[in-house]
Structures are given as C-alpha cells and as structure tokens.
Amino acid sequence: MDKKASRHSAAAILALALCAGSINVQAQAGSPDDLARVQAQLQEAAQAVSAAREALARGQAQLAAARANLEAAETARAEAEQKLARTEAQAARGRLTRNQVDRDRKLAESASAAVNAVRGEIQAAEADITASQDTLMAAKAAVDAASASAAAYLGDAPAESSEPAAAE
Predict the structure, then answer these.
(1) What's 3-154's CATH class?
(2) Domain assignments of the chain as residue spans, ordered by start
C-alpha cells in the first residue's frame, strides 16, 4: 500500500465524517434530500471501513509472509557464512583456491543482502499496517458521524445545534 495514498484516503474519509456531522442539524428537518444524503454518507462510510479493513488484512498477511521470508533468509545467510568459514580454512591449508573462496564470499554477501532486503520489506509492511489503521480509524469516525446524522433524521437523537439553549 502506498503510504502517501493512504494518507490521502484517510484525509478524504475524515472530510466525509466532518461533512456528515455538519448535516446533522439539516437532517432533523427531515426532507427527502436530507434522507438520501444521510443514506449515501452512511453507505459510503461503511464501504470505507470495509476497504480499510481489507487493506489492513492485506498488510498483516504481507507482514507475516515477510517475517517467514526473513527466517529463511537468515538461515541461508548463516549457512553461507559457515560455508565461507570452512572454505577459508581449507584455502589457508592449501586445499582450495582463492577463486573458490571468492565464490563462497559472494554467496555470503548475497545472502546478507537478501536479509537486508527482507528487513526492508518488513518495515514497509509495518508502515502499511500503520497507515491502514489510521485509515480505518478515520473511516470509523465517518461511520459514527453518518450514524449520528441518520439518528438525527429519524429523530432518535437530538441534533447538535449552534444555537444556545433557551433557559427554562
């Protein structure tokens, strides 16, 4: 998941929540247009939550796969380093050539590079998960705001008003 794109989607979802909250007072009037707007916002907010949950699940799956890959890469690196140590010892005794040592050294370096690459994948997956969590929280806020608008339209909850309450 692109971190920048998820920040934009979280901002868009938060804007949706603010918009849904702003029509709270209008919804209490109960016009058909207000009902349609409230329903559309509620549906859009619910879809945003669903999409954010799916993105979060994908990120978690990618993280699990990357961690499994890290284990395999670290095992391969350890084996390559052990083989290099054996090859260097045999070369020191004159049993192997420098070319053979150089090949094993390249394999060990390649295995280390693979470990570093997988660690980078893990960091990216963790960043994606964090971004997905932010988007999910924004989407939930949009659902809450749209639900409040729906409740105000249905008369189930008092609408927030900017007018001061009259003293009784």
Answers:
(1) mainly alpha
(2) 3-154
